[in-house]
Amino acid sequence: xxxxxxxxxxxxxxxxxxxxxxxxxxxxxxxxxxxxxxxxxxxxxxxxxxxxxxxxxxxxxxxxxxxxxxxxxxxxxxxxxxxxxxxxxxxxxxxxxxxxxxxxxxxxxxxxxxxxxxxxxxxxxxxxxxxxxxxxxxxxxxxxxxxxxxxxxxxxxxxxxxxxxxxxx
Length: 169
Ligand SMILES: [Mg+2]
Prior knowledge:
Layout: E1 9-11, H1 19-24, E2 29-32, H2 48-59, E3 63-67, H3 72-82, E4 86-87, H4 96-105, E5 112-116, H5 119-129, E6 132-136, H6 146-149, H7 152-161
Parallel strand pairs: 1-6, 2-3, 2-5, 3-4, 5-6
Magnesium ion binds near residues 33 and 37.
């Protein structure tokens, strides 16, 4: 049963995902969660490290699309700052947002990964859509609203039950 909660990769941060690492897994495009993955929940600020990471991905021709459950206007504001296309609200864990992003962006499903911090939205959406899944440690989850925070203890149980260790080539 817990198999569906097993990500293909589990890393500390998107910053661990280098072009070389993605190449090893034959990943050419990423569907990126926003809150607690690329930025803290309550902040609209983007750190220079994340900006530089996005630039590196673009330079290496890694396709990027934001995929967030956040409201359209809020995510649009972030998307404009980082100059990336977006799908929001994506209604994860349903897979339809993944399908929309892949189709709109003309990504190849086989070489697309979903990257996010939530087991019960990002990871499951990726599994339902049949994508490579990458789980990251959330950025300051204590800032999240109650409906996101209540899932965290359950996530910890699932991850501990799996004995999941961070892994990266
Ligand atoms: Mg998130």
